[in-house]
Design brief:
Layout: E1 2-10, E2 16-25, H1 37-46, E3 55-61, E4 67-75, H2 85-94, E5 99-105, H3 115-131, E6 134-141, E7 146-148, H4 154-159
Length: 160
Amino acid sequence: MRINTYDLRLNEDRVTTLFKESSQNYSAMTALNATEKVPKLMNDVFDLKNKPEERVYMIALSISFKVMGVFEISSGDLGSASLSIRKIFSRALIVGAYQIIIVHNHPSGQAYPSHEDREATKKLIEAGRLLGVHLTDHVIVAENDYFSFADNGEMVDLAK
């Protein structure tokens, strides 16, 4: 699988355009179709579990779980990072994503979600429903652990 990281940039006409920051082969998997693959990808490619501050990433996926692109959404401090719904979904729509996975780390080493993590996930589910881009999961990566909202049944609970 090829992992492309993207960002948005202004072109010479000051129009926002998609910009490929990097691209690398990642032979450990061909699709992101199982939860345990998410922290593996994020740790192997982005070393997420060793970041000293919270970082939020959005993985844009096709309908068949092929990675279309990875975006770093924000970088915060030891205990928080902002999660912009507009930023996430504008990028998902630009690359034509059918579904997305949000991933962020907890430098504290505890993968359990905070109240703010749950509230942000609920808002992302609602926004995705309106825009036609499915939030497949929100995964929190910690030093030797991870938490998946989908695997823990919270995506359904939060969608109500």
